[in-house]
Amino acid sequence: MDLESLYRTEYGRCVATLTRVLGDIGLAEEAVQDAFAVALQKWDQPPPNPGAWIVTTARNRAIDRLRRESTRQARHAQALLLHQPDEPQEVGPVRDDQLRMIFTCCHPALSPLAQTALTLRLLGGLEVGEIARAYLVPEATISQRIVRAKKKIRDAAIPYRVPEGAELPDRLAPVLTVLYLVFNEGYASTSGELLRTDLCLEAIRLARALAELMPDEPEAIGLLALLLLTEARRPARVGPAGELVVLAEQDRSLWNRELIAEGHELVRRCLRRGQPGPYQLQAAINAVHTDGPATDWTQVLALYDQLLQHVPTPIVALNRAVAVAEVHGPAPALAIIDELDLPGYHLLPAARADLLTRLGRTADALAAYDEAISLATNDTERAFLQTRRARLA
Fold this sequence. Notes:
Elements: H1 3-22, H2 25-42, H3 50-69, H4 72-82, H5 97-105, H6 112-122, H7 128-135, H8 139-155, H9 168-187, H10 197-213, H11 218-232, H12 257-273, H13 278-289, H14 297-310, H15 314-328, H16 330-337, H17 347-358, H18 362-375, H19 379-392
Helix pairs in contact: 1-2, 1-3, 1-5, 2-3, 3-4, 6-8, 6-9, 7-8, 9-10, 9-11, 10-11, 11-12, 11-13, 12-13, 13-14, 14-15, 15-16, 16-17, 17-18, 18-19
């Protein structure tokens, strides 16, 4: 594995660990970045445990910096703390640095955009430009939000911990959101290759930890089911040459049946509770996709009808339109899509191009493909759209 891949894989874990040790996200980030710079100079090849090497080096760099910058009294106190051979007993319900990091980043004192941007930066190791493209906003906007969020955490002394039991339900929604976004970034990366498996697996691991922490929260169970059922299809999502393979063309024998069985069981648990929510409904949709040799689109459409009531957003309406096309044909689906406003979102003109193709409106379909190609930032998705357009032309 090259250093760039290691950076993406290990950055979030190392920053989370150093934040626990140092108690300062900004200092932890700087120390980890310094450690990777040292690795770039010293490594001919990565050591057996590169993450541990980065954490140790970053910790030592942080100690050196504190020695230089602190007063004599504070320096001795900090050095004693950092050199303690045995870590103090962790206070709180879990011992998971990344989960603590998510709850810290999702503190209600921060805005929703700041919460997700900071988590994607710290946990996923995404660059500011990648996050900006994912949110369709200027890079400067994301950069400012991240800087302000870290300052807010420091100035307000927001604790680096998972909240106590009574506080957990009120803090759940943004945590679910950022886990969902981290997984999505792994499943359809903003740039580069299509998949970042490390992010998908990390999001699932954290979703499991959250479901264990909050076993009576149906939306936590629903999110875990959704991620498992989506991850189950990943082996069939790219072809031998790395090309994108859409759901209808995937080889279902490649799907992970163990994950599907676990996901279906979790969906049944959610159904028995009778408290449907957005993640449970999305999990149910994916359960239908993975149940049997073909998708029952009538069931999918009925579930999207419910989901749209819970989350009346243009993206949900777009996904519902895809189901409408399968059940009622492309014309009514196109009528729905033409009413949607999603500037900069490449999947809207991509879906429109597909429907126009099915309606025989070739010139309009080609124009829609051109728009989708110009908006796509992921290399694999762009290549897929170019292939579809060439085939049509």
